[in-house]
Automatic annotation (TrEMBL):
Its EC number is 2.4.1.1. It comes from the Bacteria. Keywords: Allosteric enzyme, Carbohydrate metabolism, Glycosyltransferase, Pyridoxal phosphate, Transferase. One of its GO terms (biological process) is glycogen catabolic process. This is Alpha-1,4 glucan phosphorylase. Belongs to the glycogen phosphorylase family. GO terms for molecular function: glycogen phosphorylase activity; pyridoxal phosphate binding. Its cofactor is pyridoxal 5'-phosphate. It catalyses: [(1->4)-alpha-D-glucosyl](n) + phosphate = [(1->4)-alpha-D-glucosyl](n-1) + alpha-D-glucose 1-phosphate. The keyword Glycosyltransferase applies. The modification N6-(pyridoxal phosphate)lysine is found at K646. Allosteric enzyme that catalyzes the rate-limiting step in glycogen catabolism, the phosphorolytic cleavage of glycogen to produce glucose-1-phosphate, and plays a central role in maintaining cellular and organismal glucose homeostasis. Phosphorylase is an important allosteric enzyme in carbohydrate metabolism. Enzymes from different sources differ in their regulatory mechanisms and in their natural substrates. However, all known phosphorylases share catalytic and structural properties. GO terms for cellular component: cytoplasm. It comes from Trichococcus palustris.
Length: 798
């Protein structure tokens, strides 16, 4: 985008005065941001419009990424970066006497997702536009995002996240593109004059779905796609058939708030309403677009790919069937072929507690026609599979089972592609979790290892590293992330290694300043920054990290002269408000932070920093400052992980179990550039199968484990009577579901070897360099290319 500093200054001054009727020098940070955001949006609207017009003119195939969550982070810098005017705007702001970074922090970080799944969707949106693909997001415009987390007396408190409080400069409300979504009522099948079946709905509750569109700007390529988020409103005119105030309030509640559960299934009515609401609205809007092309219905899959991110949007399948059958008058077989060819599905978990299933009665009442269609899909599936696979397998793969509708089964049967998100995860799906389906549809299964966009996670989050890379290997890596491998040539170059250490130190200082200012804790930037940032969940094993801290604390208490390098343990994690055990672990970490941070015999040998309200913006601050990346989930439980990729791209070294994408990180960096420990996935499976794991025996026989665990219940950590007991019991009495005790020794050993290597600065810096240099394959640009080639069959705009 052609634009110079002088023009920018003029435009910005004008824009600010136009909006606020006084000068920018009098404005608040929020106002300064709003003026800047508004100006930037104005700069790309022309290209946004022409991108859509080109897509229609070329009749190019469109992909729609349906996701219940998007977690984009602040958009100002990424839009400026992708437009190619970040430096120009930064300079212009400076010349106007404004602090650009401060103004950028005036943007509210929209937390419309829980964690990895939502963040993946946003990395994908960036990569789809940046690789020149015609692809759009479809989701929900939650009025309130993921709760704001505060700690009071060490306990998590949840506050509402009113992210729209200052107006959202990026979105455009498109009232003329609104659609009606119907709930409840009765279905009547009747023959019309020609004897054709017609479907009539009566007494439905009609809800207006209004889209809010946000541009998804591609990296310096002129492509601007669309993220469409739907808001529920009361319709006007005859569609407004609500009889009571409560019913009207009900409507508004549909898009009121994001469910704060991550990797956990919520069987509640409001949740399924949300799922149908945005699936139906999305499908209707896709169909309206397709009809503009005036093509035959059989060409629908040639022009449209619809991807469902986990099972949350699975009702898109029966909804597409409904429209093709009832509104467009297609026969079942034709509609079914079209649907399957159009839809593809990503599985994100093997955790049973995260598998969505809905009570049959609930769906029948809430979505009577959709229920009929699901029941018919199920009937035909069983009927067709019995002769080939026999009764047992046919019924085991049924969609409706014992009064429950299993969403994963519907997603697999109604799509042409099922992918896992890391090779190990996909292997487990095929061999275990979804093995029955793998037998039936081997060709549907494929792997697409997750990725991240280095534009946000390196270029924006880590400017110092970006400059060093540019100076060392040139700027080609920004267009082709694999080119970052050129850095390997400098692995023995002392100057580069030292420069890398200087970059890291600078980022650690930046984070230390934040910690001092917000928490009043002083941390030494030369200490090892040991980082675990992710949702709080038992399978992710933050508790194993805690056990290591307590063990280290005990060692130092025994012998204060031990020369461990200083370590700062950094945590960021929200727990689902209803996840009691996860909240107890939060309290425990805060309690040991209080204990150890204030123990003068420990000094700064150990510091613990648990930041409040972890989210994308904090991730951007913490990740560049990390030395160690804690990726310590029990092998076989984490589908992929993506913070592991962000951290390696910033030169942190992974402390890893062989789980999710850690396996692929190890394959890329080599054993000498990662710390691997713990049980393998097959070993875990074998323990589960044979029931021969006995945590109590380890507790009894391993004195270090015993001493650490006893701390939870002997009063040595103040303020955790209940939590300490519950956590102790989960490990010792209830047999330690996630094998922390079993992995303890090898984890401690791996941590000791990290200590030793950190003391050898040259060696550590080389490992960091090798991690950065091998991070290219984890760019979501490549992940998206594989989705495009192998699943969606779409090509970049030439
Ligand atoms: C990347 C990211 C995650 C995912 O972290 P995992 O360690 O892969 O679970 C969660 N939350 C935020 C804010 C992220 O940026």
């Amino acid at each position: 985008m052609a634009f110079n500093v002088q023009e920018f200054k003029k435009e910005y001054t004008k824009k600010f005065e136009e909006l606020f009727a006084y000068g920018y020098d009098e404005g608040s940070t929020t106002e300064r941001f709003i003026a800047l955001g508004d100006l930037v949006r104005g700069l790309y609207t022309e290209e946004w419009k022409s991108t859509v017009e080109d897509y229609i003119a070329d009749q190019s195939k469109q992909v729609y990424y349906f996701s219940m969550e998007f977690l984009p982070g602040r958009m100002l810098k990424s839009n400026l970066l992708n437009l190619g005017i970040l430096d120009c705007v930064r300079e212009g702001m400076q010349e106007l006497g404004l602090d650009f970074d401060e103004v950028a922090r005036g943007e509210v970080d929209p937390a419309l997702g829980n964690g990895g799944l939502g963040r993946l969707a946003s990395c994908f949106m960036d990569s789809i536009a940046s690789t020149g693909l015609a692809g759009h997001g479809n989701g929900i415009r939650y009025r309130y995002g993921l709760f704001q987390q505060k700690f009071v007396n060490g306990y998590q408190i949840e506050l509402p996240e009113n992210w729209l409080r200052n107006r959202n400069v990026w979105e455009v409300r498109k009232e003329n593109k609104a659609v009606i979504v119907r709930f409840g009522g009765q279905v009547n099948l009747a023959a019309d004059e020609d004897g054709k079946m017609t479907v009539r709905y009566e007494n439905t509750r009609n809800i207006l779905a209004v889209p809010y569109d946000t541009a998804q700007v591609g990296y310096k390529n002129g492509v601007i796609n669309n993220l469409r988020l739907w808001s529920a409103e009361i319709p006007y005119g005859e569609e407004a058939n609500f009889s009571t105030v409560e019913e009207r309030d009900d409507v508004m509640r549909i898009t009121e708030v994001l469910y704060p559960d991550d990797s956990n299934y919520e069987g509640r009515l409001l949740r399924v309403k949300q799922e149908y609401f945005f699936s139906s609205a999305g499908i209707q809007s896709i169909i309206r677009y397709f009809k503009k092309l005036k093509l035959d219905w059989n060409q629908f899959p040639e022009k449209t790919a619809i991807h469902i991110n986990d099972t949350h949007p699975t009702l898109a399948i029966p909804e597409l069937m409904r429209i093709l059958l009832d509104e467009e008058g297609l026969g079942w077989d034709q509609a079914w072929e079209i649907t399957k060819k159009t839809i593809s599905y990503t599985n994100h978990t093997i955790l049973q507690e995260a598998m969505e299933r809905w009570p049959e009665g609930m769906i029948a009442e809430l979505l009577p026609r959709i229920y009929q269609i699901i029941a018919e899909i199920n009937r035909r599936h069983i009927e067709k599979k019995i002769p080939i696979y026999g009764n047992e397998l046919a019924y085991r793969t049924a969609i409706i089972d014992q009064g429950q509708i299993k969403m994963a089964n519907l997603a697999i049967i109604g799509s042409h592609s099922v992918n896992g998100v890391a090779q190990l995860h996909t292997d487990i799906l095929m061999a275990e979790t979804l093995h029955d389906f793998f037998v039936m549809y081997p060709q549907k299964f494929n792997n697409k290892t997750n990725g991240i966009t280095q534009r946000r996670w390196v270029q924006i989050a880590n400017e110092a590293l970006t400059d060093l890379l540019d100076d060392t290997i040139g700027a080609e890596w920004k267009k082709n992330p694999l080119e970052i491998r050129l850095l390997k040539a400098f692995r023995e170059d002392e100057e580069v290694l030292e420069a890398l250490e200087t970059v890291k130190l600078k980022n650690k200082q930046r984070f230390a300043d934040y910690v001092l200012k917000t928490m009043g804790i002083e941390i030494d930037p030369t200490a090892i920054f040991d980082v675990q940032i992710k949702r709080m969940h038992a399978y992710k094993r933050q508790l194993l990290n805690v056990m290591h801290i307590l063990d280290r604390y005990l060692q130092l208490k025994d012998d204060p002269s031990l020369d461990f390098p200083k370590r700062v343990f950094i945590f960021g994690a929200k727990a689902a408000p209803s996840y009691y055990y996860a909240k107890e672990i939060i309290k425990l970490i805060n309690a040991i932070a209080d204990l150890i941070n204030n123990d003068s015999t420990i000094g700064d040998k150990i510091k613990i920093v648990f930041v409040e309200n972890y989210g994308v913006s904090l991730a951007e601050l913490i990740i560049p400052a990390a030395d160690i990346s804690e990726q310590i989930s029990l092998a076989g439980k984490e589908a992929s992980g993506t913070s592991n990729m962000k951290l390696m791209s910033n030169g942190a070294i992974t402390m890893a179990t062989l789980d999710g994408a850690n396996v692929e990180i190890r394959d890329n960096v080599g054993d000498e550039n990662i710390f691997v420990f713990g049980l393998k996935s097959e070993e875990v499976q074998s323990y589960y199968r044979n029931g021969n794991y006995h945590a109590y025996d380890i507790y009894e026989k391993n004195p270090r484990v015993k001493r650490v665990l006893n701390m939870l219940v002997d009063g040595s950590i103040p303020g955790i009577e209940q939590e300490g007991r519950d956590i102790f019991d989960s490990l010792v009495k209830f047999n330690d579901e996630y094998f922390l005790l079993k992995d303890f020794d090898s984890y401690i050993a791996a941590q000791y070897s990290a200590d030793r290597i950190y003391a050898d600065r040259g060696k550590w810096n080389r490992m960091a360099l090798m991690n950065i240099a091998n991070s290219g394959p984890f760019s979501s640009d490549y992940t998206i290319r594989r989705y495009a080639d192998e699943i969606w069959k779409i090509k970049p705009k030439s």
